[in-house]
Design a protein that fits this description.
Number of domains: 2
Shape: elongated
Largest sheet: 4 strands, antiparallel
Structural class: alpha+beta
Mean pLDDT: 78
Number of helices: 10
């Protein structure tokens, strides 16, 4: 009987304040979409780092002829110097951090440049103008600085370059997008709290006479307040469901199908990632509704 009464009151309350309830649904939908988007962007960054950082290499460029760098004042790196550098990588203190080492001669560097098809560069260069290098793949790309410190000061080394720098700007842009999405989500969540508060207050005011009578006949505070709390929870949960659905459809058709067919070498987030964050979005929605309702009900449901 009590459950039937509570659910009836919830339905009546949503019907009476249908416009405000719809506003709560839409604002919650937008805010949780931004929350979900920020989470998915961070998940995408994590996947890109795991994938790309595992492929990048540390390039140790050897002193070429006529280098202007002070450490290359003795001229081009000699075979003995190259052997010493290789020994540090394979048998030195950083050997445990090195997965593979590949040597690229000047001739190979020039051939690779030619293969890229940029005649504006190759027309003015020869193999003698190039420089040899070691391409080092690390077991842990985050340990770049340790390897760089161990090799940068060796005789015959001009400079050491971490290829992860290529992706720094991309990750910076993605992190900025995450911050923007999180900022917008925070504003929209605050708006959702205010709307839920207003909706509950209007509903409580419209039924002030009923709640007063219930209090006078001995109804508990929980029984009086629960219908109002459920109204906000239902509206917020509906917004969360819409947000989850929108995120799943966006990932499925915009990211995986459209973007995946255009740029196929990237491992994108999937619908499973959306389902992973879905419970958290529902929890946020219910938590917002409960918080906003508790802020309001203590005042507007007193006898």
């Amino acid at each position: 009987m009590r459950l039937r009464f509570i659910f009836g009151e919830v339905i009546n309350g949503l019907r009476r304040n249908s416009t405000m309830a719809l506003s709560v649904v839409l604002v919650t939908f937008v805010s949780l979409t931004f929350v979900g988007a920020a989470s998915l962007i961070q998940a995408q960054i994590g996947q890109l780092k795991d994938d790309w950082y595992g492929r990048v290499e540390v390039s140790i460029f050897l002193c070429p002829t006529n280098s202007l760098q002070e450490q290359c004042a003795q001229g081009e790196a000699t075979p003995a110097q190259e052997a010493a550098i290789l020994d540090v990588l394979e048998n030195g203190a950083v050997a445990d951090l090195v997965e593979t080492v590949e040597y690229e001669s000047k001739e190979e560097a020039y051939e690779n440049l030619v293969d890229r098809g940029d005649s504006s560069v190759t027309d003015f260069l020869t193999a003698d103008d190039m420089q040899a290098s070691f391409r080092v793949k690390l077991t842990d790309p985050e340990q770049f600085q340790v390897v760089a410190d161990a090799t940068a000061g060796l005789v015959g080394v001009e400079y050491v370059k971490d290829q992860r720098e290529i992706f720094d700007d991309l990750f910076a842009v993605l992190n900025a997008a995450t911050l923007v999405a999180a900022g917008l989500a925070a504003v929209m969540l605050l708006t959702a709290v205010l709307l839920i508060t207003t909706t509950v207050r209007l509903s409580a005011l419209s039924r002030k006479r009923e709640t007063t009578i219930m209090r006078m006949v001995g109804s508990s505070r929980t029984l009086i307040q629960l219908p109002f709390m459920l109204e906000g929870a239902v509206a917020a949960t509906a917004g969360a469901v819409l947000a989850i659905t929108g995120l799943w459809l966006s990932v499925r058709y915009l990211v995986q199908d459209w973007l995946g067919s255009s740029v196929g070498w990237v491992d994108y987030v999937t619908g499973d990632d959306v389902l992973t964050i879905a419970p958290w979005l529902l929890l946020i929605a219910v938590g917002l509704a409960a918080f906003a309702s508790l802020l309001t009900l203590g005042r507007y449901t007193r006898a």
